[in-house]
Every structure is written in structure tokens, then in C-alpha cells.
Amino acid sequence: MILLAPMEGLLDFVLRDILTRVGGIDRCVSEFIRITDQLLPERVFTRIVPELLNGGRTLAGVPVRAQLLGSDPVCLAENAGRLAELGPAGIDLNFGCPAKIVNRHGGGAALLDEPDTIAAIVAAVRRAVPAHMPVSAKMRLGFNDDSRAVECALAIAGGGADELVVHARTKAQAYRPPAYWERIADIRAAVRIPVVANGEIWTVDDARLCRQASGCESLMLGRGVVTDPGLGLAIKASMNGPASGTTAGIDWPELLPLLAEFWHVVCTRLDARARAGRLKQWLNFLRRRFPEAEIAYQQIRTVNDPVLIDAWLAGVVQRQEGPRPLVQSRAQ
Ligand SMILES: Cc1cc2nc3c(=O)[nH]c(=O)nc-3n(C[C@H](O)[C@H](O)[C@H](O)COP(=O)(O)O)c2cc1C
Question: Among 294, 74, 243, which residue's Cα sits nearest to residue 234?
């Protein structure tokens, strides 16, 4: 199984929609919905996870679990119960967010120093959600160090979670490479639930090495897929045949219509002021993989007017498709 990672501020429903159209992704997790001390109204859940209005799936039909973040078992359970009524493909719990504001309130990665609270949260949410609905969790290896990683994983499994994703770094290690995939193997050996490996998988080779080191069959991909939308397809192809993986992704001509579609969805769903930034944000990742994206990024780096971007993108797509035959003017 290949899972698409939750990424607040980057991988929202718009990009989930586009990336799952490419293929190679079996399931998504939404960006976190922060729970403090209130029962959130339905509209907050459907704003962050509009897939709830589509049977809990992206338009391409890929299931989406909604992720909750918080530190109060009672409040999380109450919100999980309401969320469950909206029919997500499952509920995921965040035990890894490194954001200061979240940690200060005892949520995200801060909970990795409190395995008992983790167990209480998972158990309370599990009880509040119908038995048929999966409850999963995502953790880092620890807050300052990884000495309690297995203890936290046992707390998650003991609380009744169906699956555990491990981002193989501590909060203190932030996003600095490497990811310590071999530590996921220790967790796998300790718990009976399926474990999914996550962190620093950018290529088919990384996926192979991560599988070897962690022992996990299932992988969660984040920045790697945003940078190379065909990565999931390529990894799957490489599993089917030894040498096929290197060519099985998608190339720039295939990506361009998706970029145009992304822009179209951004323009229909986002505020005019936010639109150019979203396109540049994605191009900024794509340019690590595609030289054409670097050129595109440089061309619009300073442009903020959506009308100008519209015209620019139409030109790029047309040049890629080649000149269209001129419409014959009618004889006078
Ligand atoms: C911009 C950004 C936002 C993220 N938001 C979330 C989030 O909402 N919930 C979560 O569990 N992890 C979040 N993460 C962590 C990712 O899901 C993932 O664990 C991390 O990026 C490592 O995977 P990668 O190397 O494949 O990107 C975020 C990461 C980034 C870079």
C-alpha cells in the first residue's frame, strides 16, 4: 500500500485531488484538524476535508482519512464521534506535529513524552467511533530523543488503533535527513497492528531501502510525491519488475495538463489573493525534479495577478502541445 501523507498548508484537498488522479496512491490522510476545547461544527470538518461530501473519497475515488490533533481525550472523542457521522474513510490521530503553538498546548509531538495520555486518547476515540470505521495514528520517534518510541507505539496499539504510521525522526530532528528507518523495525517487532514507514522517500531506490530497513510493506509518501507526482506509480511498478521502476513515473508533458487542472481548481476554490502563491508553492517542489518546472517557476516568480498567470499557463500548455492549425478564414 502507498499512502499520501498529511501536509498542512501544502497538501490540501486541491492537491490531493490532482495527485490521486495520477494513480499509485491507495489512501490519503487529510491535514490535521485541531481540536482544543470545543465540539466543532460540521462545516469545519467539511471545509478542511471536502471529500466528506464525496463519500470520503477524492474525485479519483481514493479513500481519505481525516486527521485530528489535540491533547484532551474527552474532547477528541466527542469530535471524532461527530466526524465519524460524516463518513470519512477512517480517523487518524496526530502524535507528531512539531509546531510550537501545537506543542505548547500539549498536542502533536509533545504527547510522545506522555504515552499514558496517548493510550487514553486512542482508547477514547476508538470507543466514540463505530467499530467498522478504522482509527489509525501517526507518530514521530519521540520529542527530544527516540528512547520511548516503542512505548508510544505500544500505547497506540494498546489503545485500539488499527494501524500506525511512523515518521522515522524525533521532533528535535525536525525535517533534517536522514530518517531512521531501522528504528521502525523495532516498533514493528513490538506491535501487532500494521505499521507504515514514512520519511525521506524521494525515489524508487529510497522506497526499496526503506522497505529493507523497516521491514514495512506499506509506505507513506509526502514531499516525494509533491515533487514527483508519478513516484507512487514508479514504486508500484518497481515492485512488479526489477528494472521497470525507473521509467514508470510521469514526465513533464503528462504533468502539464494536471498543472493546468490544479490551477483551474485553485481558481474555482480559493480566494484570488491566495491563488498565485499556491501555484508557485507546488512549482517550487516540482522544480527539484523537472527542469521545465524550474523554467516555469522563474517565469512567474514575481507574478501575483491570477489573470496574468492564466494567460501565461495557457501559453505554456499550447507550446507543449505544439502549434494548433489556424482556422481557415472564410473566402470573402
Ligand atoms: C508542510 C508540511 C505539513 C505537514 N503537515 C502534517 C499534518 O498535518 N499532519 C501530520 O501528521 N504530518 C504532517 N506533516 C508531516 C508529513 O506527513 C510527513 O510525516 C513528513 O513530511 C515526512 O515525510 P516525507 O519525507 O515523505 O515528506 C507535514 C509535513 C510538512 C513538510
Answer: 243
Q: Which of 28, 75, 97, 210 is catalytic?
A: 97
Q: What is the pLDDT of residue 324?
A: 54
Residue with cell 490522510: 29
Q: 2-239 belongs to which CATH class?
A: alpha beta
Distance 244 CA to ligand 1 centre (A): 28
Taking only the tens place, the pLDDT of each residue in 279-294 is 999 999 999 999 999 9
pLDDT tens digit sequence for 132-178: 999 999 999 999 999 999 999 999 999 999 999 999 999 999 999 99
Which residue ranges make up each domain of the chain?
Answer: 2-239, 252-330
Instruction: Confirm whether 97 is a catalytic residue.
Output: yes
pTM of the shown model: 0.94
Distance CA 220, CA 4 (A): 6
**Nearest alpha carbon, ligand 1 atom 1:** 7
What's the mean pLDDT in 292-312? 95
Query: What separation in Å is there between the alpha carbon of 141 and the centre of ligand 1?
Result: 14
Residue 174: left (phi > 0), alpha (psi -120 to 50), or beta? Answer: left
- 140 CA closest ligand 1 atom index: 19
Class assignment of domain 252-330?
mainly alpha
| Ligand 1 pocket mutation, candidates 118, 220, 223, criterion most atoms within 8 A of CB | 223
